[in-house]
Amino acid sequence: MKNVFITGGNGFLGKFVKKKLLSKKIKFTSPSSKECDLININNLIKYKNKFDYIFHLAAWTQAGDFCLRYPGDQWLVNQKINTNVLSWWKDFQPKAKLVFIGTSCSYAEKGDFKETSYLKGEPTKSLYTYAMTKRMLLQGAMSLQAQYKMKWMCFVPSTLYGPNYHDDNRQMHFIFDLIRKIILGKKYGKKVILWGDGYQKREIIHVEDFVNMMMRLIKYNNQVINIGSKKDLTIREFAKLICKILDYDHKRIHYDKNRYVGSKSKKLNISKIKKHVKNYEYLLKDENDGLQEVISWFLKKKILKM
Asked: Is the pLDDT of residue 126 over 90?
């Protein structure tokens, strides 16, 4: 790997991918969305260098109920972005390997969450639009592979967490939102209200673990690989872990059963990656250590708002 092009390089995952490439002294080009608006393919065509890899990390989405409020826009914008990236790859970078990110949302809620099921069954209704744009991205890559012998890899993460998350006004993924709310509860006596009954289950993987595993597996071709964690926990269990670190009474938390909660559960099947990576689960960061790291980042950044 000598020369890499990155979309979404300024996002949460993108920052860690760039950090990893820098540590390996790998050259990369990572334009911002202002420098290269992916809605217009001409903005991609202007990059004339020949790349060994294209890391397609960009997507138009946010956490929470964003998918419920903007289903039409989410479909149109992501389809344009993905089609332009695929077209540029095929016409101008055919020797490059395309590495892109899938989503656990694409799996059927009651399915087996195995890679062979990524395109099968009905995704969760509230996440349907985003899930289908990711499925279409995979189908596009497979179609170009079939006709033009192009190479790609698709990595599907569970919820990524770690320090240096975005600190603007966008909605946060659940684990960051839990931490923020509980810190506010402890620091200002603010009432902590979490969405749902707290029994919906989630899994998290540290962003550095995800990037490390992705780089280890990038040598393979034309595969979907889940990169998940050892186990999933309920929102209540995550809240208790965070409360313990912050020395806050978890019994003071209120659960609003009328709020949007997304999927009830979406634990990735990690049997495939365990075959590729020896002692996979033991290589992952301990959740308590990871959560402590994120909490420390929150407190240091002082981005908490009432």
From this structure: no
- Alpha helices for 124-225 (secondary structure H): 128-148, 174-188, 207-217
The span from the CA of 55 to the CA of 58, in Å, is 9
> What confidence tens digit (pLDDT) does each residue in 44-98 have?
999 999 999 999 999 988 776 777 788 899 999 999 999 999 999 999 999 999 9
CA atoms within 13 A on the CB side of 166: 16
Compute the C-alpha angle 60/65/70, nearest 5°: 50
Phi-psi region of 188 (alpha: psi -120 to 50; beta: other; left: phi over 0): alpha
> Of 151, 130, 176, which is closest to residue 291 (Cα–Cα)?
176
Query: Could you give all domains of the chain from N- to C-terminal order, each with its CATH number?
Result: 3-159+204-227 (3.40.50.720), 162-202+231-267+286-301 (3.90.25.10)
> 208 near 162, Cβ under 8 Å?
yes
Q: What is the chain's mean pLDDT, rounded?
A: 92
